[in-house]
Amino acid sequence: EAVEHLGWMELPSLKEAMSRVCSVVWLEHADPTEGIAPVQTVSRLEAFLHFCKKARLAKSLNAWCEALPEEFAFSPQTWVVPYDAAELRTAMGKAKKDEAFIVKPTAGAPGEGIT
């Protein structure tokens, strides 16, 4: 729908895309830049790597939950330690006995500090 709305078209193969004059070429599972014209760009969408990290994704989801609570009601609150340790302790102090918490350690912490 979005492709049509923008007046773009999807081509069935990389070979066909390389044989045409294109403003945007989106390639998945490949990064061949050979044969791309000087006015063409290949984007690796580096932000996606950010969301592949559990702690970073949790921080982003928490921010989105605050900004758009209705749209992100499906996402449970998550704490990233050590950054959210004080907030987590406060929440745990107010929690019911059987309440569960989602806690994500930052890179390199491998769960240390979560008890």
What average pLDDT do the residues reach? 78
Low-confidence stretches: none
Helix-strand string: HHHHEHE
Number of strands: 2
Helical segment count: 5
Instruction: Give the radius of gyration.
Output: 22 Å
Strand order of the largest sheet: 1-2
Which structural class fits the helix and strand makeup?
mainly alpha
Q: How much of the polypeptide forms β-strand, as a percent range?
A: 5-15%
Percentage of helical residues?
A: 25-40%
CA(first)-CA(last) distance = 47 Å
**What about the largest sheet?**
2 strands, parallel
Q: What would the principal axes of the Cα set say about the shape?
A: elongated
Characterization of this structure:
With 115 residues, the protein is mostly helical. It contains five helices and two strands. The chain has helices at 2-5, 14-18, 47-51, 54-67, 85-94, and strands spanning 78-81, 102-105. A two-stranded parallel sheet has the order 1-2. Helix 5 (85-94) links the parallel strand 1 and strand 2 (102-105). The longest helix has 14 residues, at 54-67. The radius of gyration is 22 Å and the shape is elongated. The protein starts with a helix and ends in a 10-residue tail after the last strand. The model has no long low-confidence stretch (mean pLDDT 78).
